[in-house]
Design goal:
Helix content of chain B: 55-70%
Low-confidence stretches of chain B: none
Radius of gyration of chain B: 22 Å
Number of helices of chain B: 7
Oligomer: heterodimer
Number of domains of chain B: 1
Helix content of chain A: over 70%
Number of domains of chain A: 2
Order of helices and strands of chain B: HHHHHHH
Number of helices of chain A: 14
Largest sheet of chain A: none
Number of strands of chain B: 0
Radius of gyration of chain A: 24 Å
Distance between the termini of chain A: 62 Å
Low-confidence stretches of chain A: none
Structural class of chain B: mainly alpha
Shape of chain A: globular
Largest interface: A-B, 58 and 38 residues
């Protein structure tokens, strides 16, 4: 779907891309610093130049590839699901400073350093490129603009981004919400599911709430009391249960709508759909409480 | 490693976000869910169930239906307006209800009334 140039949809997609670029930007300078720290001074400048150049080239290649990959049936769904998880990881608090696992040790040679930088950037940029591919609705112009925004961030803008998110942490939460919204759009645009969503319109709402409840769980879990914390698991689980019945109804041609149910079996299925999750929820809460009691007694005995 | 993890405040955004920033983002998320609700409801279904008059009476549901094709910028504007509205309501409500709270019996501003 090509977006109309300079329309509201175009600028909205551009805004989504800018936000995604900001929150998913990788720390390229740190990688270069770690890789090149043992090389001679004259090699370090060459590593910085070629490493950055290679990182930009690989990012451009991935951005072009992702447009074609997302056009393959099934990949839009997989990408959408991956974005929900990426959004969740984004808003999950990091108590300790994360160490880079992409660089194990400083490189011994110029070629090894450049190779490590390019591979590290490709790994760090996969989520960014995937999200931009989803937000751009297949528009090559938006992909190029996304690239034009992310490249300066890779090369020069890291301090600016750090200052911005440090002053306004809500940018991270907006980024998470936008990623989730993009994921919802990608899943509903999946070619294999478009017709199904047209038939099951209510499933779109369930899907949206499900995506937000999974991705933003670390956020609302912080505001919930200990007694209410299981809601972070129960709410998505109940929504999956509801969505499961919609899927089952279309796969096995079972009637799950009580307004259209005619036989006793159909009424039973309908009842199962609305209250069948209760025993599972009760079992989960019981197990959780038992585990908490057990952990508490173990901690007391260890003291 | 992401750039945002270089900042402790950003890496722990759910803990360090300001109340107004949180309200703003929460409003945007609510608008996104409302938009998906508008996307999920079939307008012809409302007529079939005979709800069109009820909806015209309230109007709110129709507004939600209109949000079905909203873009991110529109949702952000709507979220901003919603957050501002909630904030004004909170301030006005606070100003209204605070005088109704009785002061502590030993508080300085307590006026002793002796008949």
């Amino acid at each position: 779907m090509e977006l109309e140039l300079f329309s509201g949809a175009f600028f909205s997609a551009l805004l989504a891309i800018i936000l995604i670029d900001l929150v998913l930007a990788g720390d390229n300078a740190l990688i270069i610093g770690l890789v090149a720290r043992n090389l001679p001074k004259e090699s370090q400048n060459k590593v910085i130049f070629w490493g950055t150049f290679g990182a930009i080239a690989i990012r451009a290649l991935m951005a072009i590839l992702v447009v074609y990959i997302l056009a393959v049936p099934g990949f839009m769904l997989a990408g959408g699901l991956a974005l929900v998880w990426i959004a969740r990881k984004l808003v999950t608090p990091q108590d300790n400073a994360e160490e880079s696992h992409l660089v194990k040790a400083p490189a011994a040679s110029f070629a090894a350093a450049v190779r490590t930088i390019i591979i590290a950037d490709a790994v760090m940029g996969i989520d960014n490129v995937l999200a931009i591919g989803g937000a751009s609705h297949g528009s090559i112009l938006l992909i190029l603009l996304g690239l034009a925004i992310s490249v300066p961030i890779i090369v020069w803008g890291s301090q600016l981004v750090i200052k911005l998110v440090d002053r306004y942490p809500s940018v991270i939460l907006i980024g998470g919400a936008v990623l989730c919204w993009t994921a919802y759009g990608m899943i509903t645009r999946e070619p294999m599911l478009v017709a199904w969503f047209e038939e099951h319109k209510a499933a779109k709402l369930v899907l949206a709430v499900l995506a937000f409840s999974i991705a933003l769980a670390p956020w609302y879990a912080e505001r919930l009391s200990d007694q209410m914390k299981p809601l972070t698991v129960l709410l998505p689980a109940i929504l999956v249960w509801m969505l499961g019945f919609e899927i089952v109804s279309s796969v096995w041609k079972v009637q799950v709508d009580y307004l259209m149910a005619t036989t006793q079996g159909e009424y039973l299925i309908e009842g199962l759909r609305w209250i069948g999750w209760l025993p599972f929820a009760a079992f989960f809460l019981w197990v959780r409480e038992r585990m908490m009691l057990r952990n508490g007694s173990v901690a007391r005995s260890a003291q | 490693m992401r750039l945002i993890h270089r900042s402790h405040r950003a890496a722990n955004a759910v803990r360090t976000v300001s109340p107004s920033g949180e309200l703003f983002v929460a409003s945007i998320v609510i608008c996104m869910i409302l938009a998906s609700f508008g996307d999920a409801v079939d307008p012809t279904w409302l007529g079939e169930v005979g709800l069109e008059f009820a909806l015209f009476d309230f109007g709110g549901e129709l507004s939600v239906m209109a949000m079905r094709h909203w873009h991110l910028i529109e949702l952000m504007f709507a979220g901003t307006v919603m957050a501002a509205g909630i904030m004004v309501l909170r301030i006005v409500g606070g100003a209204f209800f605070r005088p109704l709270d009785p002061a502590h019996r030993d508080a300085l501003e307590k006026v002793p009334i002796k008949l």
